Q: What sequence folds into this?
């Protein structure tokens, strides 16, 4: 058990999910699968931070509406985002009158929220929980790097913070749904990366660490799964994971992908190394991956949220960028 | 169950705890009870942020050493702090090689960590967890208000962010220990307070909301407990809670206190409305309150962590300061 796999015997259901995105995400290959998008990324708000909060508000409302659930049916919300003091979650969900647990695990927060939702529903503490996360390109860029309006040059390894929010309703429900059967908590891994424009390299070792712990503990190899998917490593991090895993004797070349690669079209959209952010893995799972699982095209998936635990201040003070990767095993109920 | 009390049937033990504080906390009435203090608040580090991280590192090491536990005995760490992107927890605990769940619930993070530790140990997912939180006066003041070196005038309602960190080891253990018997998650409450120098007023309605939900669900009144203690409301917030609860018919005058009042000496220390911060409730519980529970002087305590979910940016954009309050019921095992 210790530092290993946590089996969720009751296999909590992912009852429903919803995704809300911005223009670039809507223009990407998964565009038709998102529940709502806004062409100017403002969502009717006067600031980027308020726009991000509004996305969380909409995502949770949309997810609940899909199963005709009201907020009184939700026993707990697990939520987080990238903003200082997680204000997108606070303000976005303040109208949703439910017990609230704030989380911070950088871009892996969606996976952390699903882990805690899965564990608490599986144990019978809650009948239904909501897991809500978000990121917004304009609020994130001005907080972590420079305001988008400044027009700074981007490096080839830089990723594009996804404008998006997703909400998942995890429930003790007997119907046919995708189910969370196992979870594994991430451990902080620090390879000494200090370049805030190369998040993929900072997070890749954490993803490999979690995969290796999972494969060693379970006795299963990569081929046991229809898909192994990381959260937002992008081209740089995806390629590093393939190399790191290869040196450990694991061949991931057949069934490993990354949400940061899936969300944009590399040839027609200028997103450099791919998507990133708290919303990236969340909206790809909520739209594309859960659809494939429901349709029976994927039966067994390792969803591995990846996060870079940095702040602008820690980088200015010479700190490295540690990574973390939380694992959620999702099976189809076909 | 919904939005109510979660009973922890196995009553996880608070196996041990440790506290690390700065000079002012050491000079206060609880000074002799803290495990370690540093006279210049720097803890041997070159920046205030690194000093805060070092406090978390020391607090967890001290807590583990009290029961001769090594990090390989810890199945999960639940940790958080007030810094942007929770860097005190990331960097402070990076040397502790254990599964890591990052939390953010402002100054109520210690209670949130104890809730999640209690729930996961009670369910048998983990044998032992660590709950670690911190705040540092100098890192918090320069992030949320102005750098201490600037020497700004403080308002009468302003509180003093506690320099302190505490770690708690929660365990499935049969010995005689204080035990977590019930928890209740907080709900975000917004009374429209916009003054970042009056946190007590912003958090008090959330504390009252949680108390009322608890008393109504449990059928117990305030007199059932030896002590009801909030996290960091200070004089202003403490007095507001007494008033709010009185209007609802609950008399708290006999057994209600606040960690922000306990930690400093109001007559000899110039701390205005009292202590606050992620470390405030954590170090008071880890030192003073757990001692009274172990000694049999307190047998049944409602520990209610209080948090103000604001950021400087949200205040600048005209946002109000919502509050939240998480409840942990701790009983002596005498």
A:
């Amino acid at each position: 058990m210790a530092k290993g796999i946590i089996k969720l015997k009751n296999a909590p259901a992912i009852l429903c999910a919803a995704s809300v995105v911005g223009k670039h995400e809507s223009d990407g290959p998964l565009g038709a699968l998102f529940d709502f998008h806004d062409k100017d990324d403002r969502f009717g708000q006067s600031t980027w931070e308020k726009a991000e909060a509004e996305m969380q508000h909409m995502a949770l409302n949309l997810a609940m509406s899909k199963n005709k659930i009201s907020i009184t049916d939700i026993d707990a919300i697990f939520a987080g985002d990238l903003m200082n003091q997680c204000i997108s979650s606070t303000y976005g969900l303040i109208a949703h009158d439910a017990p609230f647990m704030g989380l911070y695990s950088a871009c892996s927060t969606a996976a952390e929220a699903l882990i805690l939702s899965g564990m608490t529903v599986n144990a019978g503490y809650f009948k239904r929980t909501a897991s809500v996360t978000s990121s917004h390109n304009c609020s994130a860029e001005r907080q972590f790097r420079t305001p988008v309006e400044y027009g700074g040059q981007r490096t080839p390894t830089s990723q594009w913070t996804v404008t998006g929010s997703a909400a998942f309703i995890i429930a003790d429900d007997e119907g046919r749904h995708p189910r969370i059967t196992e979870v594994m908590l991430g451990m902080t891994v620090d390879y000494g990366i200090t370049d805030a424009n190369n998040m993929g390299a900072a997070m890749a070792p954490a993803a490999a660490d979690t995969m290796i712990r999972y494969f060693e503990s379970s006795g299963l190899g990569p081929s046991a799964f229809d898909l192994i998917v990381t959260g937002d490593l992008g081209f740089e991090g995806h390629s590093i994971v393939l190399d790191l895993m290869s040196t450990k004797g694991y061949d991931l070349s057949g069934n490993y992908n990354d949400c940061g690669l899936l969300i944009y079209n590399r040839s027609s959209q200028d997103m450099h190394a791919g998507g990133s952010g708290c919303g990236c893995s969340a909206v790809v799972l909520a739209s594309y991956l859960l659809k494939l699982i429901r349709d029976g095209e994927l039966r067994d998936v390792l969803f591995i949220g990846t996060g870079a635990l940095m702040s602008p201040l820690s980088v200015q003070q010479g700190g490295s960028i540690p990574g973390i990767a939380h694992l959620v095993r999702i099976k189809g109920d076909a």
User: Anything to note?
Assistant: The first strand of chain B starts at residue 6 and ends at 7. Chain B has ten helices and 14 strands.
